[in-house]
Amino acid sequence: MALPGFGQFLNGHLFKGTVFIILEILVNILINFNLAILHSFTGEIQKAIDVTNYQWLMFYPCLYMFAMWDAYRNADGEVNNFSYIPFVFGALFITIGLIYSTSLKVFRVIIGPVFLPMLSLVPGLLLGFIIYKFIIFYKNQRNFSGDLLE
């Protein structure tokens, strides 16, 4: 699919891209993530839970979302002081999904440590974009009102 670091390569930041790819490979190996994904996709959720190193998996969403934000920021995306907010909420909700993926019985049996965190990204990004748009709207309204007073 997509690896952290590929966006940096596309933007011409070869050193940073190499660092992100090395970090992704290292963390992926320490998590046993490919094996957990394999077990999840074949319906062997308990095996996926058993092979996963959760201490390293807790680090993965932050690495992944930071690499995406960095590539977005450097690709002439909408650059302002608040463009990181949807990425932060995405990483937060993935981590929350990861925490609950093994503690709630229904999620543990049906979804496991791969699918619930992935599904949790959607509400995280939605909330992050809503907050981002609200902040930008409020900031623009405030600037517009300030311009009228001058």
Automatic annotation (TrEMBL):
Keywords: Membrane, Transmembrane, Transmembrane helix. It comes from the Bacteria. The chain crosses the membrane at residues 20-42, 54-72, 84-102, 114-138. This is Uncharacterized protein.
